[in-house]
Design brief:
By secondary structure, the protein is an all-beta fold. 0% of the residues lie in helices and 50% in strands. The protein is built from no helices and 15 strands. A four-stranded antiparallel β-sheet has the order 4-5-6-7, with no helix packed on it. The chain is globular, with a radius of gyration of 16 Å. The two termini are 30 Å apart.
């Protein structure tokens, strides 16, 4: 609703990054994560009740979810053997979009995580980097960055598919 901000902050003297929420009307910050490793990339759910984020708990960045409001522990959403970065939600809250890489696929791939059954479906997976997927407000198209053309450019395709893709 625009009254709170979620950010990752690293202590000025070094150490692990943590997620903080900031009440913008009072300019008051509250620590949201309490991990001994980096917590990054906070993304609010559309209803403002939860925040998805990545944590380097297992030497790799896994996706976690935690209720906003001071109650409830964080819970693991996705664990790959390398890294996951959350970046956007569908307006319904049914899908969490993220990009990931693994030891088997060293390039970034864009995925959508179903919040109903916790299964990821590929959005874009190729020998190139695909990153920062975001769903259109009407839920029919997904935009994402890709290095397929040799530089970083934006592509759009039907979601959940099938359909073609367009460079924009």
């Amino acid at each position: 609703d625009g009254t709170e901000l979620a950010v990752a902050m690293r202590p000025s003297g070094g150490g692990s990054a943590s997620i903080w929420t900031i009440d913008l009307s009072r300019n008051l910050g509250s620590r949201f994560t309490f991990t001994t490793t980096d917590a990054d990339n906070p993304v609010w759910s559309p209803d403002g009740s939860r925040i998805a984020f990545s944590v380097d708990r297992s030497a790799f960045a896994d996706l976690y979810l935690k209720p906003f409001g001071g109650t409830g522990a964080d819970s693991l959403l996705v664990r790959h053997d390398e890294a996951d970065v959350p970046c956007s939600w569908s307006s319904s809250g049914d899908w969490l979009f993220h990009f990931t890489r693994s030891s088997e696929r060293p390039n970034w791939d864009a995925e959508a995580l179903s919040m109903r059954d916790r299964r990821s479906v590929p959005v874009a997976a190729s020998p190139f980097h695909e990153f920062q997927p975001a769903l259109s407000p009407d839920g029919t198209l997904v935009a994402y960055g890709s290095t397929e053309s040799g530089g970083a450019e934006v592509y759009v395709q039907a979601f959940p598919g099938p359909g073609g893709k367009w460079r924009v």
